[in-house]
Fold Troponin I, fast skeletal muscle.
Amino acid sequence: QSLMLAKAKEEWDQEILDKQAEKERYLSERIAPLHTSGLSLSQLQDLCKELHEKVEIVDEERYDIEAKCNHNTREIKDLKIKVLDLRGKFKRPPLRRVRVSADAMLRALLGSKHKVSMDLRANLKSVKKEDTEKERPVEVGDWRKNVEAMSGMEGRKKMFDA
């Protein structure tokens, strides 16, 4: 990881240097060097006025571009909100279980052609419920005897043996 971080830092530094060199090259192409030596006071004032006019023009262009960028950003945000609203409106409702008999289902599928009533429960086996309470005999006795028998080490031994 440290090697990767070192390599990324080197590339980042190189990228910064490349950007600075590109900026200097662009400025040297676009802006002529100023020659202020040997100029009189009125010529220097005229030069300053020209530079101020150019700065105002560039500043107006920058302001217009910034306003367009802000407008586009606001429009993108509004469109994102609209998309989220549209997604939220069309939620699929949770499906509910509906009990329909086999006859009603066949009538719905086949229409008036269905005349045979179908009793699906008639073919099922009947299962008898086992009554577990009746099988176990219930011992009714004096609970005090049971407590006395289970007390002490012998009672514990009976519990483990059982």
Remarks:
- The chain has a mean pLDDT of 80.
- The helical segments are 2-30, 41-89, 102-110, 132-135, 143-150, 152-161.
- DSSP finds six helices and no strands in the chain.
